[in-house]
Write a structure and sequence with these properties.
The protein is α/β, with parallel strands linked by helices and about 260 residues long. It has helices at about 5, 50-55, 85-95, 110-120, 125-135, 140, 155-170, 185-200, 210-215, 240-245, 250-255, and strands spanning about 10-20, 25-35, 40-45, 65-75, 80, 95, 175, 205, 220-225, 230-240. The longest helix is centred in the middle third of the chain and has 14 residues, at about 155-170. The model is unreliable at about 1-10 (pLDDT under 50). Bound molecules: adenosine-5'-triphosphate.
Length: about 260
C-alpha cells in the first residue's frame, strides 16, 4: 500500500461488517458511511460493540488473537482488509486517541516528535512539534516548558498532548475512544472545542457514552445496540440533529430519552 493510494479519499465505509471473538459474534451486519471532515459519533449501551467497531477501522482488533471480521471496511478507495495491506501504515493514516491520556514518559517535545522521527520525517521537527501543539490548542500553555515531562501536565492537557502526538503523524482520520471520560467538565469542553476546530481538516469518529457530548459535537450519530444474544446491530444512523429530535426507531428514542442503557 502506498500513502498515495489511500490518500485518494478519507471517508470510511463499513460494508456488512460482522465481528466475532472466537465463537461469539458481537457485531452483525453493520453498513454505514462516514463523511469526510465531519464528526461522527458512535453511541449505545455498554458492551454494545462501539469500541470494537471503532477499532476495526485502524485494525487494532488484529492484536486480539480470537478476533475475526467479515464484510469490508473501506478508507476512500482502499480496502483496509485487502491481503497485503499494512496495519502499521494504516495507523499512520488513521490516528487514534484513547480513553485515558497516555503520554510517553518523555518530554512534551519528544512526545510529539516521536512519531515523525520514527517515521523518517525529513522536515523540521521543531516546526511539526509547534504546528501540532498549536493545532491541539496546547502551544500557548506549554511553549516555555517543552523539555518538561508530558506526565507533569494536567489530565486535560495530557489528552491534548496525545491529540498533538496523533496530529504529528499527519493522519487524515482521527479515531477517539471516549476521549473525555477521564476528564473534568472544563477539560471536556476544551476537547470538544478542539474537535470542532479539527474537523475542518480531519475526519473524526468518536465513541462516547455521553449523549450530550454526541449532541454537542457530532454531525452524524450511529446508534449501536446489542440484541438478546448480545450481538450488536446498527439500529439507526442519521444526522445527529435529526436523530436527537426525531428518531426513526423506537429503540433509539428509548435510549436517547434515558429509558435504558
Ligand atoms: N478482547 C475481547 N475478547 C473477547 N470479547 C471481547 C473483547 N473485547 C470486547 N469483547 C466483547 O465484545 C462486546 C462488545 O464490546 P465493546 O468493548 O466493543 O463494547 P462497547 O460498546 O465499546 O462497551 P463499553 O461502552 O462498555 O466500552 C462485549 O460483549 C465484550 O465483552
Amino acid at each position: 500500500m502506498t500513502t498515495q493510494a489511500i490518500a485518494t479519499g478519507a471517508a470510511i465505509r463499513f460494508d456488512n461488517v460482522g465481528v466475532y471473538y472466537g465463537e461469539n459474534q458481537v457485531i452483525e451486519d453493520v453498513s454505514m458511511e462516514v463523511t469526510e471532515k465531519e464528526i461522527t459519533a458512535i453511541i449505545g449501551p455498554s458492551g454494545g460493540g462501539k469500541s470494537t467497531l471503532l477499532r476495526c477501522i485502524n485494525r487494532m482488533n488484529d492484536l486480539i488473537p480470537s478476533f475475526r471480521m467479515e464484510g469490508q471496511v473501506w478508507f476512500g478507495e482502499y480496502n483496509l482488509y485487502a491481503p497485503g495491506s499494512d496495519p502499521t501504515q494504516i495507523r499512520y493514516e488513521i490516528g487514534m486517541v484513547f480513553q485515558r491520556p497516555n503520554p510517553f514518559s518523555k518530554s512534551i517535545y519528544e512526545n510529539v516528535a516521536f512519531g515523525p522521527r520514527i517515521n523518517g520525517y525529513t522536515g523540521s521537527l521543531d516546526a511539526i512539534v509547534e504546528d501540532s501543539l498549536r493545532s491541539a490548542a496546547l502551544w500557548d500553555e506549554v511553549k516555555d516548558r517543552l523539555k518538561e515531562s508530558g506526565l507533569a501536565l494536567s489530565g486535560g492537557q495530557q489528552q491534548r498532548l496525545c491529540i498533538a502526538r496523533t496530529l504529528a503523524i499527519q493522519p487524515s482520520v482521527i479515531l477517539m475512544d471516549e476521549p473525555c471520560s477521564a476528564l473534568d467538565p472544563i477539560a471536556t469542553l476544551a476537547i470538544e472545542d478542539l474537535m470542532r476546530e479539527l474537523k475542518q481538516r480531519y475526519t473524526i469518529i468518536i465513541v462516547t457514552h455521553n449523549m450530550q457530548q454526541a449532541g454537542r459535537v457530532s454531525d452524524k450519530t450511529a446508534f449501536l445496540m446489542p440484541d438478546e444474544n448480545r450481538v450488536a446491530h446498527l439500529i439507526e444512523f442519521d444526522q445527529t440533529s435529526r436523530m436527537f429530535t426525531n428518531p426513526q426507531d423506537e429503540r433509539t428514542e428509548a435510549y436517547i430519552t434515558g429509558r435504558f442503557g
